[in-house]
């Protein structure tokens, strides 16, 4: 149960396709769907499964390896279909498109360009290639570039699919040198609550000891608001090129800060025994109602997923696993008595109407996230929380290194630790 796992990441990109060749890709994903449907049809007809790949391949005009992968997927689905004995279910063939699965250097290829982009080449048909450049989140881009240039990484299978009519490429990469500890083999769970101007961390151990840290970064909020105002102004003046420049500058600033904050979260986490870092899964949240205005505000005001992603991949480079929990009521539940209700929160203060417990509200949320993480990912019980430690606050400074008492710097992989100022609360 406690095997380490190779570090595997799925990286998502949008495809900027050259010379209107998008329709070729669309057509290929439709043919993948036919291959899938045809496989299901033949299997239901009772033909020998071993003969299916050959029969399907003759019809669909896809790269051989791609056809094989689609057929294998369909047969997997058939196997489950029989296993569950669910014959009353309608046929699971569908219309539309199906992800085009391709092996690296067979069905698709990637290369670094002189501009620092990554160019792709996808075989939509045998000898018929679609070319262009990948676009996407910088965290995904960074890892892919590393994977393309380092022997420690292996680039694996990719899927081409259409998301809201836009073509995407999802690439699997594996770091063969790095393993990540199994989540179950943890002794400390760290809840991370990400906000517009801070991130709150709480570490819960198996045996009731815990620590809390709030990292303030008001300058991110400040700069984002400042850039927002500036962009509005140039936009109104019709100066689009300046608008784009400002956007780029803001992005770089925010990205740089988020990298630093995420680095610090991982450093802080490393001091604990067998840590597992737990985040709120915001994907779950978007689909649900009733998460309240605080959540909505948070969603729109900070690149949460970027910070979570940066932290998660930096953690995995240290062998530290990450877990994801449903954020439902994490900011309303009282960490002491478990009572949960929508409270009218006075900024950063949490007050429980049942037991009277008062606390820094983001710290409360981080405790709840850690508690949920233990319930979801660990086989030990949630420690009884009779009292919570003082909230310690740190704030990053623009420059200069200052005292950082609980952080070990020595083993950081090639990263300089920058200024962290201890501020007591
Ligand atoms: Zn309470």
Automatic annotation (TrEMBL):
Q: Which UniProt key words apply to this protein? A: DNA-binding
Q: Which residues form a coiled coil?
A: none
What molecular functions are annotated in GO for this chain? DNA binding
- Disordered: annotated span: 400-425
Record InterPro entries:
Cas12f1-like_TNB
Q: Does the keyword DNA-binding apply?
A: yes
The keyword DNA-binding belongs to this UniProt entry's keyword annotation: yes
**Top-level taxon in the UniProt lineage:** Archaea
Q: Supply the Pfam families for this chain.
A: Cas12f1-like_TNB (PF07282)
* Cas12f1-like TNB domain boundaries: 304-369
Q: What is this protein's name?
A: IS1341-type transposase (TCE31)
Q: Which organism is it from?
A: Halorubrum californiense DSM 19288
